[in-house]
Amino acid sequence: MGGASLAFSEKLWRGMSIKTKTPIILPSETWAREFDAKLLLACCLAERGFPVYVGCKNTIHYNITSFPAGLYLAKDFRVSSDVMFAIMKRLGHTIMAWDEEATLPFDQDEYHIIRTSKFAFSQVSAFFAWGPVNQETLEAAPYPVPGPVYLTGNPRRDLARPEIRGYFQEEVEALRRRFGRFILINSNFGKLNHFVEKEVVRPGDVDPGLRGNPNSPKFEKKGELKFELYKHFLKLVPELAAKFPDMQLVIRPHPSESHASWKQAGGEHKNVHVLYEGHVYPWLLASEVMIHSGCTTGMEGYLLDTPVVSYQPVSSTQSEQNLPNQLSHRVYDLKTLMAAVEGYASGDLALQKSDEIDALVTPYIACQEDELASDKIASIIDEHETTGKLGEHSPAAKKLLGWASAKLRAAKKRRDWADPKHKSDLAFDQHRFPDLPLPSVEQGVDRFQRLLTRFQGVGVSKVHDKVFLIQKS
Fold first, then answer.
1. Does domain 173-194+224-361 have CATH number 3.40.50.2000?
2. DSSP states of 108-165 as a string?
C-alpha cells in the first residue's frame, strides 16, 4: 500500500490537527445496509465536537495503523472480530459495539453461540442495545459482561421515522420512473447461496459460524428447513413473473448472496430483475408490495408503512415467532400469496396496522419516538468522553506489537484479494461496499441538515475512496 498508505495517513492527521475530542471510527461492512445510518450518527457526534471517520470496514482495518487512537464503534463481536479487536486494543483504541443482526430470532443460548465470541465480547467497554430483548440477551452472556449495556435503539431505525424518510425521496422517485409499478422480493439465503462459492453452507455441511455446536441436531434441522424455503422462493420467481406480466419483479438478494441462481430462476421473463443497489429503504418505499420470509426487511417494511407479505410454505416454531413474519401479512401457500399480492397491488387490501401489532415491535426496538437513537448513542459517548473513559493507555511495546500485527494482517488480506474463492476477494468487497464519490456523502449530510434543521457547520472531507471524515468546522 506504500505511498497510498502514507497519503492516507497524512490526510487523517491533517484532519485531526485542530480537534481536541477523541476521534471516533464508524466502520460499515455493507454500504447499502449500514452507511446512511452511520452517517446520521456521525453528524450527531460531529455536532458535539467529535471528529468522526465513517466508511468501509475493510478499508479502515487495512489502514488501521494510520488512524489516531480513539473510539472504534464495532458492528458486532463475533469470532471474526477477535484478531482486529486484539490489534485495536494494542493500538490504544476503546471499543464499543452494537450487533447489526440483533433483531433476528435467536434464543439466548443460540444467540451467544452464533453472534458472540468470548474474547471479542470481553474487549467491548460498552454495548448499545436495539431494544429490551437485545439488552436482556447481552446481559445474560455465558461469560462476564465487560461494560454497561445501554438501551438506545439503533440509527437504522432512525431512518424509518416519518421525519427522516424524506432522506430517500429522490431515490424513490428515480426507482418509480425506472421500473414503474413493481413487486419486491428480499431474500436472506446468504449461507445457502453465498457470493463466494467456498463459503456456501448446505444441509450436511459443517457451518464454521456455529462454533461450539457445529453438529447440533437443532441447527441441522434449521438448515434443512431454510434450504427447503430457498427452493420454494426460486420456484416462486417464474410464477410471479407470469402471474403479473404488467408489473416488474425485482429480486434483491442478501448482500452476501450470489445472483446467479435468481437470474436462472427468472429465465426468459423480461419483467424479472435481479439487483442489489443502494439502501433497501427506497426500494421498500417505491414498491407496491414486498415479499420475504423471516428477513429483517420485513420489519423495516412494516415500519415504513409498505405492504409486506411473509411467504411461509415451510413453517416451524421459529418462523412463527420471527418478528418480521409476525409484522407481515402471512401466507402459507402459493395461491394465497398470489391473492395477497394482487390485493395490495389493486388497493383492495389495506395495510395491516394496529396497536396490537405495533406492540410486538417495542421489546425489540427502543427510541421509536422523541429522541433519536443516534442522539442517545452520541450523548452516551459524550458522557464517556467527559469522564475520561475514551482512549486506552497502551505502552510503546504494546503499540509496536499492534502495529506489526496490523501490518501482517493487511499483507495477508492483500494476498487474498486476487483469490475469487476467498471471502476477502476484491470483487466481493466491492460488491458490499463500492467506491463512494465525495459529492454523494456531502449530499447525504446536506439532506440530514435540511430534514432536521441541524448539523450546521458539519462538513465532509475524503481520506480514502471509501472513508470520510465528518467534523464541525
1. yes
2. HHHHHHHHB-HHHHHT-SEEEESSHHHHHHHHT-SS---S-EEE---HHHHTTSTTTG
